[in-house]
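ok so dumb question maybe but i'm new to this and my supervisor (M.) told me to 'just get the structure for Solute carrier family 35 member F2-like protein' and walked off. so i did the thing. is this what she meant?? sequence i used:
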Amino acid sequence: MEGHAEERLCGKWRVACGFYNYNLRDVFTWRLLKTVIMGQVLSLLICGTAVSCQYLANAGVETPMLQSFLNYALLLLVYTTILATRKGERNIVQILKTKWWKYLVMSLADVEANYAVVKAYQFTTLTSIQLLDCFVIPVLMLLSWFFLKTRYRLVHFLAVMVCLLGVGAMVGADILAERNQGSTSDVVLGDGLVLLSAVLYAVSNTCQEYTVKNLSQVEFLGMMGLFGTLISGIQLAVLETQAVAAIKWDLRIAMLFAVYALCMYALYSFMPVVVKMTSATAVNLSLLTADLFSLFCGLFLFHYKFSALYIISFVVITVGFIMFNAVPTYTALPEDDPADQPAEGSSDHLLAANRDTQRAETLTAVAAL
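this is what came out, is it supposed to look like this??
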C-alpha cells in the first residue's frame, strides 16, 4: 500500500513537471520540427519589417502609422472582402451584429501596441526595449490561464526562463559590441510605452488564439483588417499628415514601403496558422529570435559588430522554444486534476499537443476501452 502511494506521488510529480516516459521519437516529431520552422519564418518576416524600417529611418521617413495603415488595408482588401461575399451566419453583416465591439477592442489593442513600441524608440534605449518587450510573455500566459483556461507544466516555465536567458545574452552582445542604443531623452516614458505595448500585444494575441481555434482565421483577419484600417486611418489623419506630406517619394522609398507592407501582411496572414497549431505564447517565444535575424542582416547591411554571443543567444532561445513545444499544455476542466490524467492526455485536454495525431487518437481509443 505504501509502495503504491509512493508510486502515485512520483507519478503526480512527473505529470506536473511534464516529464513522462518519452521516447525521442515521441518528442522530436515532424510536427515539432514543422512548428520550429514555421516560428522562424515568422521571425524572418519581422526581420524584413525591421530592415525596411531602418532604411526608411535612414532616409528620414518616420511614419509608423502610415506603415501600419498599409498592412491593415491589405488585410481589408483580401480577408474582409472574403467575409463580405460569404452567406448565412458567417457573413460579415451577421458577425458585426453580434460581435462588433469585441473585434473593435481587439483591433484597438493591436494598433496601439504597434504604435506604442515604435514610439518608444524615440525616448528610451534599444536595450530597454529588448528586455521590457519580453513582458508580453508572462502577461500572455496569465491571460491564457484565466480566459483560455490553459494550464502549464513546470517544463513550460523552465522553457520560458531559458528563452529569456537567451534574450539576456543578446542584450549583452549588443552592449559589448557597443551597438547604437538610440535615444535616452525620456527613459521613463519610453519604458512605460514598451510595457504598455507588451500588455496590448498580449490582449490582442489572446483574442487571436481564441478566435482562430474556436471560430476561423478568415474571420479574425477580416475583422482585424476592417477595424484596424478604420482606427489606424483616423490616427494617421490626426498624427502624421505633415510627416506624410514631407516624404520625398521616389522608387526606392516606394519599394521600402511595399516591402514593409508585404512582410507585415504575410506575418499577419501566417501567424494565425502557427497559433492554431501551437499557442500564442509559443509563437511569441519563437519571435524572440527576430531581433537576432535583424542583427545578422545588420552585420552585412549596416556594418554591425559581430559577437559570438549572438550565436549562443539564438541557440538558447531555440532550445527553450523546443522545450516549450515538446510537452503539451492542457485545458482546465471542472474538477480537473492533471496528475490523475493519463500521461498522454486526450485531444480534448490538449491545446498544443506536439505529438503526431495518429498516436494521440490511438491512445484515446485505448483509454475508452
